[in-house]
Amino acid sequence: MKHTTIKDIAKHLNVSVSTVSRAFNDKYDIRPETRDLILETAKELGYSPNPIARKLVQQKSFNIGMIVPEFENSFFPQIIMGAQSVLHEHNYQVLVMQSNEDAETELSNARTLVGNMVDGLIISITSEDQNVEYYQELLQKKLPIVFFNRVPAELNTSKVLFDDYKWAFFATEHLINQGLKNIIHLAYPHNLSFAKDRIKGFKDAHKKYKLPEGKTITCGFTIEEGERIAEQLINNGEIPEAIFSSGDYSAIGVMKAFKRHGYKIPEDIRVVGFSESQLAQHVDPPLTSVSQPTDLMGQAAAELLLGQINNKGIIVPQTIVLNGRLNVRESSVKVI
């Protein structure tokens, strides 16, 4: 099948190839009626532009690489959709890769995307956080990069964050204001900057009310991890009045384990999660959780990246901090 080219259009209209090219690129030095005629003729002849040729001319791939740690819950997919909503408006395609919480996979993903000449990267790092040196090399080469949610503190680049300290403080305060004093915080790995902020918010809430510093236990991201920690607490006879978890999934795991051992929620133990997963409202009892604006996080990351791309190598790092909401449900409300 023969494809129509701009030469075919030029020959059909008896005009130069450069005139046809100027019409397609909406140049100022072509009469509107000529441009309209060329565009209409191109449509009639079934012409479609060669995307590869266009990318070569514009020196852009119009592809953006996006790397996330996992797809197991709705948090990262919602951020991806937020980023896509912005990037698609500017004719960019989003190439999404998952690191599966493995630093080597994350590095391989990044190298693959860079090797495919993406115009920029949007990244949320793994909990292992070992690829700072490589990202620094990319920044020195002027590749636009924006980090979100999980960010490397060492790099001077644009970042989109959530106010984790503030909302961890409020979540803990919500429990303290019900008269609870023995509260345990299930924290994500401490090398993650947002995990540190949540720990600090948890501790500072105790300080505000002149309570002994609450206990912090490092926990993974899954339901199984929450169950494991809860089983340890039960076996040790260490039953707190409440648990504030850094994630909904581990909080749900806590609830499952305690209920399995005959404890009632919230009568015997109150539970608060973080990130407002899709499961939060559907477990029994519904889980109190801190809601993060995932769509805005993705949109903000995309807008920051587009700003870097349009600045043609002049990158001025910016940090955007987003606000949230504590959705109070039955899992944490003291029964009177």
Topology of helices and strands:
Blueprint: H1 6-13, H2 17-24, H3 32-44, H4 51-58, E1 63-68, H5 75-87, E2 93-98, H6 103-115, E3 120-123, H7 132-140, E4 145-148, E5 158-162, H8 164-176, E6 183-187, H9 193-208, E7 215-218, H10 223-235, E8 242-245, H11 248-260, E9 270-274, E10 288-291, H12 294-310, E11 319-322, E12 325-327
Parallel strand pairs: 1-2, 1-3, 3-4, 4-5, 5-11, 6-7, 6-8, 8-9, 9-10
Antiparallel strand pairs: 10-12
Helix pairs in contact: 1-2, 2-3, 5-12, 8-9, 10-11
> Outline, from the CA principal axes?
elongated
Kindly state the number of beta strands: 12
Count of DSSP-assigned helices: 12
Counted up, domains total: 3
Radius of gyration, whole Å: 26 Å
Provide the CATH topology of the largest domain: Rossmann fold
In spatial order, strands of the major sheet run 2-1-3-4-5-11
What percent of residues are in strands? 15-25%
Query: What is the CATH architecture assignment of the largest domain?
Result: 3-Layer(aba) Sandwich
Question: Which range best describes the helical content: under 10%, 10-25%, 25-40%, 40-55%, 55-70% or over 70%?
Answer: 40-55%
User: What is the residue-averaged pLDDT?
Assistant: 91
Keywords summarizing the entry:
336 residues; six-stranded mixed beta sheet; 16% strand; Rossmann fold; six-stranded parallel beta sheet; 434 Repressor (Amino-terminal Domain); 43% helix
